[in-house]
Write the structure tokens for this entry.
Amino acid sequence: MSIIIILVVLCIGLAISLFLLKREIRCVREQLQECSTGVEKLIEVAFIDKDLTELAAEINRHQAYQRDIKSSILKKEKHLKESISNISHDLRTPLTSMTGYLQLLQKTCLTDEQKEYLEISISRGKYLQTLINDFYSISLLEDESNAPVLIKVNLDNILADTVLSFTEQFEEKGIIPNVRSLNTATYVMADEIMLRRIITNLTSNAIRYGIKKFEVEIVNTDMVEVRFQNLIEEGYRDELEIEKLFEKFYTADLSRSQSNSGLGLYIVKLLSEKMKGGVSASLEDNKLIVNLLLCRA
């Protein structure tokens, strides 16, 4: 009889111990789930169990190690961005001077061969200047402390003014631009400088790779949608990977021969997201469609 009582007591003790252990494991799991949301805290255990206590200590050491790695990476990224910004800034002034001197040479007496080489040099200089400006812009835009100044702006006016400023380039490429607005004025909450940069980059991209027609249309949705549409050459369409269009440094093979850095559309993505909007793209036959979303004012 006494043996049965002892066995019953042992079973009850084991059951209680197992219950407490399972409860503590659930508690550790809940603490880990909380940590996964970004909350920094130590894993604590209330149930006295050597293995469980050692497990919690090992998890805490691992989390501390991961925090140190993350902090180190963030510091290196910040240092790299600052270096890029400083280098870009230092290069802009001498490069501008160099381009200016090359343009002065165009006014001198040169042979046809010299003129050809000079035009190539000026073209490469301007491309390098654009590339440096883009690097400088990205280093600033990727800095989270550089917040946009959102104000109520007239989208119709900015859109028409920016697109039509490319009239000469449209004529050179034989592209007919068409900007369509709604019947009433459309206002958005945006940083005007950033918004003009977005429209400029999208228009420049359309001129570089588009043919015949370029259409811009404001669509009335919950957010304000601006739809940029342009016909593209079949060769460019075949090379284009639409899902990579807004990635940093992405260029289709065809565009590499046209001195494209692959940064313009990445900047569009950065700017639109900073203004709580977004951008996407799709292909319909030979038509590239870019949808820009902006917050309605």
